[in-house]
Design brief:
Elements (H helix, E strand, L loop, with lengths): L31 H13 L4 E6 L4 E2 L2 E2 L6 H6 L5 E5 L8 H21 L2 E5 L22 H4 L6 H17 L10 E4 L18 H18 L5 E5 L8 H4 L11 E5 L12 H18 L2 E7 L9 H12 L6 E4 L20 H9 L3 E2 L13
Parallel strand pairs: 1-4, 1-10, 1-11, 4-5, 5-6, 6-7, 7-8, 8-9, 9-10
Antiparallel strand pairs: 2-3
Helix pairs in contact: 8-9, 9-10
GO biological process, one term: substituted mannan metabolic process
Family: Belongs to the glycosyl hydrolase 26 family.
Catalytic activity: Random hydrolysis of (1->4)-beta-D-mannosidic linkages in mannans, galactomannans and glucomannans
Amino acid sequence: MNFITNKTNALLSICMITGHFLFAQIDKKATKETKILYHNLKAISKEHILFGHQHALEYGHGWSNEPNKSDIKLVIGSHPAVVGIDFSGFSGYSKEEIEKTKTVLRKNVIDTYERGGITTVSWHFNNPVSKNGFYWKDSVSVAAMSLIKKGGSRHEQYKEILKTIADFAHSAKAKDGKLVPMIFRPFHEFDGDWFWWGKKYTSREDFIEVWQFTVSYLRDTLKVHNFIYAFSPDNRFNSESEYLERYPGDDYVDLFGMDDYGDFGRDGKYDLDAGIKKLKIISDIAIQKKKLAAFTETGLESIPNEKWWTETLLKSLQKEKIELCYVLVWRNDAKSPTHYYAPFPGQISEKDFLKFYNDPYTLFENDLKNIYKRKF
């Protein structure tokens, strides 16, 4: 199948007849398009990496809610290949607000699919017990993971929240009648202590139990078959065993990820060797388990290093034989003059980002072709 265009003359042909590639996707009833996307992401990771940007189409530096616009497209003429959205608005709000959020995100997801791009979903899950947002706040927040697990006092409430997510997944239907595949990344950065589901506030056993229930309930009970499930701690690990300390098992994870800002220049501190080592760990695990791997979050706020894209990120991704299907940088806030992680016209790293874009290794939305279709 030729699902990459523009940057390479190589014909990437893969046969996706069941049994020819024994990739360990956890949903055996996944939609055809979700299975094909999964297989194609694995194939892409052998020689390329997709570029992603969080909230790329919802807003950008100094703008919001403008159709078919992204800061990335303003710079290089293409949207990112992977567009990040968030389910944060799916709980803790009125039904009217939730439905409004669903409508906006549904259009975003469908439009991305119809252009040939990919959607990944993070979940800044508002604490269902203390109702004070997703961050942990001392003396106010409640350690809720033990309460939302099966048998917990808020388990039924958690099931209702998952039904809201399932309803959205079932409603994300494109003009061709197909359900749009999404990479779903719940409980991210769980090894940190800034979210209420973090390691400091949640036992290993409770975390694994809630994760397993979440996947099983969505997939098996609510019949969501257009999700690829991503497991992504922050960067607080230095070995495979540390990375897998809260791993819920091969039947509950499709993609191994990592969020890492700290090794890639945050606060002016760089430890690229450490960051590369961690990327190699998740890549090796994915290869071993026949699953996907991705650099699920990174970036340098305000991008003060004008050659960060080629000298830091690109060199790090290419230094070792690492197989990652995408790398995603964080959002560009619409109002803050400093909170942005991708270039926009006039930003000092713009020229370097063009070099990053033109490198054959990186792929953007306009480089993709038929990523949801198979040809034999």
